[in-house]
# Entry
Amino acid sequence: MFTIYTKEGCPWCEDALSFLKENNVDFEEKEVRSNSEYYQELVDKSGQDKTPTIDFNGEILKDSDVDEIKGFLKEKGIL
# Structure
């Protein structure tokens, strides 16, 4: 399982979440606009505040789109 940091209203985040759900990928979503702790966690881990950002066992994929997420998950053996 991994964590995906999202922002409410972010179209790239919505696309990423749809992709993950369609592919039955187990993940934890942390929405950062409504939770300052999650926001700070995102910044601390990735050095930026863009979303969607993925944390997989400490490996960070920053500010990514569905194609990048797909490649990352294939590389990690999740897809």
